[in-house]
Write a structure and sequence with these properties.
The protein is built from 3 helices and 2 strands. The chain is mainly alpha-helical and 90 residues long. The protein has one domain. It has a two-stranded antiparallel ribbon with strand order 1-2. β1 and β2 form a beta hairpin. It is flat, with a radius of gyration of 16 Å. The termini are far apart.
Length: 90
């Protein structure tokens, strides 16, 4: 799975984000960063604030960074994450 076959949906309420895997055959052409920003902002509701737009763009940037790290093999094994979470949740 690469970033080229993922899309993000956002409900505009600040609570629900959805990461959708799309089969490469059905993917749109690769978008430039500018196109991604324009699409993210244009999909906000008409009454969205500048802060809403900034939150959306920050979220997308973090997803992009995570996908780049995953594609580079910079991941953490599930067992290690479970150990870390167990310490945090004490």
């Amino acid at each position: 799975m690469t970033r080229d076959n993922l899309s993000l949906n956002y409900d505009g309420g600040g609570e629900f984000y959805e990461l959708i895997y799309r089969h490469p055959i059905w993917c749109d052409m690769v978008m430039t960063t500018k196109e991604k920003v324009l699409q993210a902002v244009s999909s906000l509701p008409d009454d969205a604030s500048i802060e809403d737009a900034m939150d959306r763009l920050l979220f997308l940037a973090k997803i992009e960074r995570g996908l780049q790290q995953a594609n580079a093999g910079q991941t953490i094994p599930h067992a290690e994450i479970k150990e870390r979470m167990a310490k945090w949740l004490k």
